[in-house]
Amino acid sequence: MSANRFSIEGDRIDSLSEFLRAEVDDCFGSILYYPREFTGSEDKPLVFRGKKFHEVSFKDTIIKNIRFIECEFRNCLIMGASAVDCEFVDCVFFDTNTSKMKFTNCLIDPLSFEQNFDLTNDANIAINLYHSLYRNSAETHQPKYALSSLYRMKKAESKNLDSKFKRGSIEKKQYYIEKSKHIIHDFASGYGLKLSNVARLLVIVIGVFSILNYLFSSCIFTEDVGVSTFLDSIYFTCVTITTLGYGDMTPDTQFGRIFITIQTLAGFGVISLFLAGVASRALRSN
């Protein structure tokens, strides 16, 4: 399924009270909501708890001062709508078109849209939505949701490259360059947003170099000085990559010096990536 549907069929509703009367078994279904605003009173929000919205159109509607709690939106049309002073708590969206939807001063978890998009077909819609969620979360000081929105926007941009390539709107060489950047950036640091990815990369680098240092110990050290066990190799690799350099194990062959220099540079790069990720998260959270 996909969220790029642009029309639904249903009964025309011309007022909020008429909409509320259309509920059947906690479900609002096959409704075309025509009023400009869908809003609660100024002093008290309108609350929907545990409701289902199936094939409901809120196209170009201003949704204001509403609390949606544990609600489900499925096959809905919310394109061009604006959510203002709303809360979406533990809500989920499925196959709902959110094109050009805007959020202002809202509480909403980007994970609510995790199952909403087929990024093969909906990449542009997803990019616009997550960008709007990011701006809303940043302006309302919700750092966790801001970072989550930004990461999902980057993932959608990566998928959008695939769509452009299939349509022939991007050259093959440019596609492979840009796609490689996305893959490397995502794997290495989660686009500078996931420190867990950097930690994973550090573990991989230490593991790979530990194995190589153990296997090629005789090429790195002389017989008198070197690693005799794999634990020694892990210790030496960690000391090298973190640039501590205690000096108790020192490469004394030409190959060893070159190889350890490469490891030191790799370690410096990963640690720099980690520090950059910390700084990026702090700046974007603010």
Short description:
49% of the residues lie in helices and 16% in strands.
SSE arrangement:
Layout: E1 11-13, H1 16-21, E2 27-33, E3 37-39, E4 46-49, E5 52-57, E6 62-64, E7 66-69, E8 72-74, E9 82-84, E10 87-89, E11 92-94, E12 102-104, E13 107-108, H2 119-139, H3 143-167, H4 172-189, H5 195-215, H6 217-220, H7 230-241, H8 254-285
Parallel strand pairs: 1-2, 2-5, 3-6, 4-7, 5-8, 6-9, 7-10, 8-11, 9-12, 10-13
Molecular shape: elongated
CA-atom Rg in angstroms:
26 Å
The whole-number mean of residue pLDDT values reads 88
Oligomer: single chain
Strands of the biggest beta sheet: in what spatial order?
1-2-5-8-11
Topology order in helix (H) and strand (E) letters:
EHEEEEEEEEEEEEHHHHHHH
Pfam family, one: Ion_trans_2
GO biological process, one term: stabilization of membrane potential
Main location: membrane
GO molecular function, one term: outward rectifier potassium channel activity
Give a description of the structure.
The chain is of the alpha/beta class. The chain folds into two domains: 11-188; 195-285, Helix Hairpins. 49% of the residues lie in helices and 16% in strands. It is built from eight helices and 13 strands. A five-stranded parallel sheet has the order 1-2-5-8-11. Helix 1 (16-21) links the parallel strand 1 and strand 2 (27-33). GO terms for molecular function: outward rectifier potassium channel activity; potassium ion leak channel activity. It is a multi-pass membrane protein. Residues 213-281 form the Potassium channel domain. This is Ion channel.
